[in-house]
Amino acid sequence: ERYAREESLFDQMKETVEQFSLPESIGSKMLAKLDGEAGDTKREKQASAQLLSDDKSNVEAQLQTLLDLRLAGELTTDEYRAKKSGLLHRKSGLEEEIRQCRSGGADRLEPVRMLIKDAVQANELTSSEKKLEIRAFLLRVGSNLLLERQRLRCEAKKGWRVLRQRPNFRD
Questions:
Q1: DSSP label at 109?
Q2: Which helix (H) or strand (E) holds 152?
Q3: Per-residue pLDDT tens for 68-78?
């Protein structure tokens, strides 16, 4: 037979989607674990930001002391400028670090969260007859969909390879 039958191809597509799927119970446990890690990361970031804010307050106090010494005439203008420059540079570095700590706390986990949600959706797709959605899912998780000797082959993208290589999950 030179051509693959549509029914056979659709069954192969569903089998391939099943390789990327996670049962809802396992997906929800994984998402709960990620939420816990996101909370831990957020607390760590807040603690770091607080330490950096304390350092910044210390640098501001040093700047004020430096100014008081200059006004009292205990420092020359050149000494004052050199020390002030170093302290201002340190202060701006601390402000940047504080900004980084306060923004994007758990952004690094978002791709994993989306992968898990898509894998749970794949589990739902395996029991449906939605050909276009199944095809769209395969295109999203695989870089090349090939038909070789009437068999569908899908090269998984990064991240999805792990799901595909794991043993099948059951509820």
A1: G
A2: strand 151-156
A3: 999 999 989 99
